[in-house]
Amino acid sequence: MKINLLNANLIKTGIETNLINKVSLHIFDSIDSTNLFLKNLTLTNKIEICLAETQTKGRGRFGKHWHSPYAENIYFSARWQLNAELNTLTTLSIITGITIIKTLDALNITQGIKIKWPNDIYWQNKKLAGILIESLHKDNKLFIIIGIGINVNSTEITNLTNPWCSLAEITNQYWDRNIIISNLINQLGTNIKQLMQNGFAEFSQFWQKYDYLYDKQITITQGKNIISGVAKGINKHGQLKLIKNTNQKIIINSGEASIALHN
Ligand code: BTN
Is the CB of 53 inside a 6 Å radius of any atom of ligand 1? Predict the structure, then answer.
């Protein structure tokens, strides 16, 4: 089978004209981590995008490793300069998950796709994509790094303990990642602009349609602290609403959500 490698020209061809002049692409065969590359790259007012065929130190949330087999999946990071407060980061993390859903939607892949708060993408209880958002501050400016890993063509990844899936498994076909990446950049551009101009409210409704945890008995792990309750969607800041088993209503700002085993 022919393997399509990452191709800057193909990606650029698919980027919308209003974005293309703002984007600077960095494509590597191998790199430690695309997020790390953008953390260390000189600050500019461009949208800096880093992609790699493989990552030797792919980083996940909570210090986990992100497996990055060669030329199979998408390892993508984008650095954006924002005129916003740091407290937009929760909503930004939510809209990045929504961005992935919209990207898949444009490729006609929607059946059974869900978002697990704050931004893991799931299909049939298996993880399809993950997001790692980091931020940088310099001279009163805020730069955010949006790291996205999407399992595209992998059919086998060794050493993974948690259930995972790929677009190839969902659709039974091989995908050219370049097309998905252009789409992802366009959707990200549109959604970040919309978030900055109109706020988060418009995204809440979209979220409800794809909420993987809604009404489920879940646990939230925050370091050594574990909170149990029933998930009740998100509020206007993108925080998770939870009714604890004591009936107390609380708001969760961070942590790793898991569905309780007896669900
Ligand atoms: C998670 O679900 O734990 C987040 C995974 C994020 C992985 C992506 S792959 C591209 C970017 N570079 C990294 O080192 N991590 C993110």
Answer: no
Nearest-CA residue for atom 15 of ligand 1: 59
Q: At what angle do helices 89-106 and 201-210 cross, to 10 degrees?
A: 60
The number of beta carbons lying within 10 Å of the beta carbon of residue 235 is: 13
Is the CB of 61 within 6 Å of ligand 1?
yes
- Answer positive or negative: Cα dihedral of 221, 224, 225, 226: positive
Element (H, E) at 52: strand 47-55
Q: Which two tokens stand for residue 132?
A: 């790692």
pLDDT mean over 167-194 = 96
Distance CA 34, CA 24 (A): 14
The candidate with the shortest Cα–Cα distance to 154, out of 40, 250, 59, 75, is 75
Q: Is the CB of 186 under 6 A from ligand 1?
A: no
Residue-level pLDDT at 1: 66
Q: pTM for this one?
A: 0.96
Contact 56, 31 (CB under 8 A): yes
CB burial of 84-96 (b: ≥16 within 10 Å; e: otherwise) equals beeebbbbbbbbb
